[in-house]
Design goal:
The protein has 227 residues and is an all-beta fold. It has strands spanning 22-27, 33-37, 42-46, 55-60, 65-70, 76-80, 86-90, 93-97, 109-113, 120-124, 126-127, 130-131, 135-140, 146-150, 162-167, 175-181, 184-189, 195-200, 206-213, 216-218.
């Protein structure tokens, strides 16, 4: 009979507590890191060497900052879902509930945060005439372009059909890369930048496409997003 051996994690320690649904960690060169706090609406700086575990708010993004990445200009780019979650407290834990609260504007955005000043600017709110519903995660390619996902929103009787997208850091050349996808979440590129990967939340599927150029992909599947 097979026996499972449980291995205790080595050197595991708490860096910070009291964060409001942290996501999208970005490691910095000095050993500190940035995270977004979705329920708090902030980009937050954490220093693992601080004994008190205090967190410093870098920028007030508003809405629901959901993913972050450092751009070629040194600024932080954030996928903001617009505040689409109706947060609920259960058993001492914070859960993202649905449907969206009345305060949700019906769309999210791609944002740029200047780390020196904390200034937040909106980069993109729509693509091909369609509003971004709830942007989730992003990754930069070697050319400085942004690949990102739009997770969409599920309400009581409806569910968004969204996809994966691409744009330049200034929001130009925005295009829909893969559609439709079912709640696309995490996104990444291969080390060589020649493969794009997207994870779907509700289906538990991982899609992959060959990257044929900036914002361009191809795949072999005959149906759906061809990944």
């Amino acid at each position: 009979m097979h026996k499972t051996r449980i291995v205790e994690p080595a050197n595991l320690r708490v860096v910070a507590t009291g964060l409001r649904f942290p996501e999208g960690p970005v490691a910095l060169a000095d050993g500190s890191l940035l995270v977004v706090e979705i329920a708090r609406g902030t980009l937050t700086h954490l220093d693992p060497e601080r004994a008190d575990g205090a967190a410093e708010v870098v920028a007030e993004c508003g809405g629901g900052p959901n993913g972050a990445a450092i751009g070629p200009d040194g600024a932080v780019y954030v996928c903001n879902n617009g505040g689409c979650f109706d947060w609920q407290e259960r058993m001492g834990l914070t859960f993202p509930g649905s449907p969206p609260p009345p305060s949700w504007p019906g769309h999210g955005s791609l944002q740029r945060v200047d780390l020196a000043s904390g200034e937040v600017t909106t980069v993109l709110t729509e693509c091909d005439g369609h509003a971004l519903r709830a942007p989730n995660d992003l990754v930069f390619d070697a050319d400085g372009g942004i690949w990102f996902t739009d997770h969409g929103v599920r309400e009581e009787r409806t569910s968004d059909r969204t996809g994966a997208y691409y744009c330049r850091a200034d929001g130009s050349d925005a295009r829909e890369v893969a559609f439709p996808l079912d709640a696309p979440n995490g996104i990444g590129l291969s080390p060589e930048g020649d493969r794009l990967y997207v994870a779907e939340t509700h289906t538990g599927r991982l899609w992959a496409w060959d990257v044929t150029g900036p914002g361009q992909v191809s795949g072999s599947a005959p149906l759906g997003p061809r990944g």
